[in-house]
Design goal:
5 helices; 83% helix; 0% strand
Amino acid sequence: MAETNLFEELKDVLQDFKDFLDANVPTIKPAIQALASLIPQVTDLIDKLIELMNSLKTEINNLDVSAIPGLSEVSSFTTKIGTFLDTAESLLPGQAGTINDVRSVANVVTSLPSLDEVKTEILTLIDAIIAHLNSLKA
């Protein structure tokens, strides 16, 4: 399995979502408003998405990895854990849940050193997406 950089992947997904909204808000806004008059839960869907975006923004904002000594070494350690898990997965099929839990945490830790590089971009993308989502309700 190739090493996944969680924060780069998050940035890419957010960029794709923002680009879609940039291009399509004028088209989907009237449709969303029409749907909301028929299915009021459409507005709840947008509100919950905004709430999730705000939660993600808070979590990213709270991650300050610049002062953690040895972070690079810990990242290398968790990369090795990922390699081990890739091998162990086929030998321990009954442990798939535990392996996936460990892999999830290891992927986050492995990606932490790159967070400072993309943190501002991620936060800017989240703000732009929230603005688009709010405009869909207006």
